[in-house]
Amino acid sequence: QSYCHRLQHDMYFLTSTSRLNEQVVDKIVLQLNRVYPQILTNEEAEKFRNPKASLHTRLSDLLKHLQKKGDRHCQEFYRALQINAEQLFNDLPSRKILKTPDPTEIDTDKEQYMLNDRGPVFFLACFSVAAGLALFWYCCNSETQVIGRARRILGFSPIIIGRHVRNICMLYLEDMSRN
Predict the structure, then answer these.
(1) 3-97 belongs to which CATH class?
(2) Per-residue pLDDT for the chain (179 aa), expressed as one digit of tens each?
(3) 21-25-30 Cα angle (round to 5)
(4) pTM for the whole thing?
(5) CA distance 153 to 159
(6) Any stretches that span the bilayer, and where are they (predicted)?
């Protein structure tokens, strides 16, 4: 949902009585005027800070002006609102909609944590055990015969596995080829 649509949705909530006081509105206008990127020009800031107009009118005009300017300007308004009135920002109707979890949706952060909580060493250990069992099962199966290529592969195994393990595997392969 774009920030302009969110601002349109939150407009009634923000302009209702006693939500925002004059000091907070002035701080927001000044922030939009002074902070980079400059959202409001000096003339616009003076217009929205004019104490002769009612607070409701100034705030409504400010929100309509920001919606006309585009999504970036509305986003900066929300940032200024969060900085200057965090409790009100958290109570916005659009924020409550964003915070409401969909019961059918998977929480990817929780799922990612649950999948990655063991680390890479655990993965390598499980993979090594599975590969070792597969090799052992293949070699012990009486229906299969050990092919000469397997001997060549294990001949290069000092790079992959230790020398003692390689010697045991080679002796086992030679014994299996004799039977």
Answers:
(1) mainly alpha
(2) 789 999 998 988 888 867 888 899 999 999 999 887 789 999 999 999 988 888 889 999 999 999 999 999 999 999 999 999 999 999 899 887 766 555 555 445 444 445 556 777 777 787 788 888 777 777 776 555 555 556 555 555 555 566 667 677 777 777 777 76
(3) 150
(4) 0.54
(5) 11
(6) 120-138
Amino acid, single-letter form, for residue 135: L
**CA 112 to each of CA 102, 104, 109, 130: distance values in angstroms, whole numbers, following the listed order:** 18, 17, 5, 24
